[in-house]
Design goal:
Elements lengths: L4 H4 L4 H16 L3 H10 L7 H13 L7 H25 L3 E2 L2 E2 L1 H4 L2 H20 L4 H23 L8 H26 L4 H28 L2 H4 L5 H4 L5 H9 L1 H8 L7 H11 L2 H18 L8 H15 L3
Antiparallel strand pairs: 1-2
Helix pairs in contact: 2-3, 2-5, 3-7, 4-5, 4-9, 4-17, 5-7, 5-8, 5-9, 7-8, 8-9, 9-10, 10-16, 10-17, 13-14, 13-16, 14-15, 16-17
Length: about 325
C-alpha cells in the first residue's frame, strides 16, 4: 500500500497550517535574524509528523474529538524542540543540506545556528512552563535531556565495532523516539484520560520512533542523495554505525578491519558499502523496523475508533512503506 503524508494527515491538515503560522510569529516577532532563520526552518518542507501525532492523539483522546489551547501549544512546543535539535545536529555534523534545503548554519553561520537552536529550546521551555501541568513539564524536559545524551552517546560510539544492537537502540530512543513517545503521552495527559491509556500512547510513540529511525538508517544505504535530502552514506563515512552496519559486522570480519582503521585507505568506504550490501544487514534491519511498527500499532487498541485513531494506525504502515 502506498501512502502520502498529505492524505495520511488530512484529519489535522488545518491544525498543522495553524501551527506553522503560529511558529513563524512566535519566533520572529522580536528577533529579525532569528525570524529569518525561523521562516527558513518552518518553510523547509518538513512533514510535521511529530506535531501531527500530538494533534491526532489529542483528537482521538478527547471525548468530542476537539482540541484545547493547551493541545495546540504542546504541538508547537514539540515542533520547536524537534527543530532546535535538527539545527544543532546540522552544526555538529557539518551538514549543508537537510530535506534538500540549505541548513541554517550554511545560510548564516555556525554562531547564528547554535544561537537559533538555543533560542528554540529556551522558547519551548518557556511555553512548556506556561502549560501549568507538572507531568507534561517533566515529560518534555526529559526529551531535551535525552537529545543531549543521544548526541553524546553517538559521538562516543563512532567507529566502535563492539557497539551492540541494544546500545544502538538506546541511542536511537534518545535521538528519535523520546520526543514522539513523551509528546504523545503528554497530549493524552492534557486530555485527562486514564493513566493506562497515557502509558500505551507513550509505548506507541516509542516504538514508532524506533521504527522511523531504523528505516532512516536503511534509506541511507538504499536511496540516492537527491531523494534523501542529505548526502547518502554520510553516517557511515563519519563513523556512525547504524543497524544495517552492525548486522553486517556480525557476518563479515573484513568490515571490522575497515571500520577500525576509520576508512583511512583508498577505496575503504566503497569496499565497506559492498560488504554491507552483500550481507543480510538491510534485510534484518527491515525485519526489525517492521517488528517495532507492529508493536506501535498494537498499542492503539486502547483508543476508540475515529478518523484520528485510524491515521495513527496508518502512520505505522507509512513508516514501512518508505522502504518500497
Amino acid at each position: 500500500m502506498t501512502f502520502s503524508t498529505s492524505s495520511l494527515l488530512a484529519p489535522v491538515e488545518r491544525d498543522l497550517q495553524i501551527l506553522t503560522d503560529n511558529l513563524k510569529q512566535l519566533i520572529g516577532a522580536r528577533h529579525p535574524i532569528l525570524g529569518a532563520a525561523a521562516e527558513h526552518l518552518f518553510s523547509a518542507g518538513g512533514k510535521r509528523i511529530r506535531p501531527a501525532i500530538v494533534f491526532l492523539v489529542s483528537r482521538s483522546t478527547m471525548s468530542n474529538g476537539g482540541l484545547t489551547h493547551r493541545h495546540r501549544r504542546l504541538a508547537e512546543i514539540t515542533e520547536m524542540i524537534h527543530t532546535a535539535s535538527l539545527v544543532h545536529d546540522d552544526v555538529v555534523d557539518e551538514a549543508d543540506l537537510r530535506r534538500n534545503v540549505a541548513t541554517v548554519h550554511s545560510l548564516f553561520n555556525n554562531r547564528i545556528a547554535v544561537l537559533a537552536g538555543d533560542f528554540l529550546f529556551a522558547q519551548s521551555s518557556w511555553y512548556l512552563a506556561n502549560l501549568d501541568n507538572l507531568q507534561v513539564v517533566k515529560l518534555l524536559s526529559e526529551v531535551i535531556k535525552d537529545f543531549a545524551e543521544g548526541e553524546i552517546l553517538q559521538d562516543l560510539n563512532r567507529f566502535d565495532v563492539n557497539l551492540s544492537i541494544d546500545r544502538y537502540l538506546e541511542k536511537s530512543y534518545y535521538k528519535a523516539a523520546s520526543l514522539i513517545a513523551n509528546s504523545a503521552k503528554a497530549a493524552a495527559i492534557l486530555s485527562e484520560v486514564e493513566p493506562e491509556i497515557c502509558d500505551r500512547l507513550y509505548d506507541y510513540g516509542r516504538y514508532l520512533g524506533l521504527a522511523f529511525q531504523i528505516v532512516d538508517d536503511i534509506l541511507d544505504f538504499t536511496t540516492a542523495t537527491e531523494v534523501l535530502g542529505k548526502p547518502a552514506t554520510s553516517d557511515l563515512a563519519s563513523g556512525i554505525l547504524t543497524v544495517p552496519v552492525l548486522y553486517a559486522l556480525e557476518q563479515n570480519p573484513q568490515l571490522k578491519i575497515l571500520v577500525e582503521r576509520e576508512f583511512s585507505e583508498v577505496n575503504d568506504l566503497e569496499r565497506a558499502l559492498e560488504i554491507i550490501e552483500a550481507s543480510d544487514g538491510i534485510k534484518k534491519s527491515r525485519e526489525l523496523a517492521a517488528h517495532y511498527a507492529h508493536l506501535a500499532a498494537d498499542n492503539l487498541s486502547c483508543l476508540s475508533p475515529s478518523e484520528s485513531t485510524q491515521a495513527l494506525k496508518e502512520l505505522t504502515d507509512y513508516v514501512l512503506s518508505r522502504l518500497y
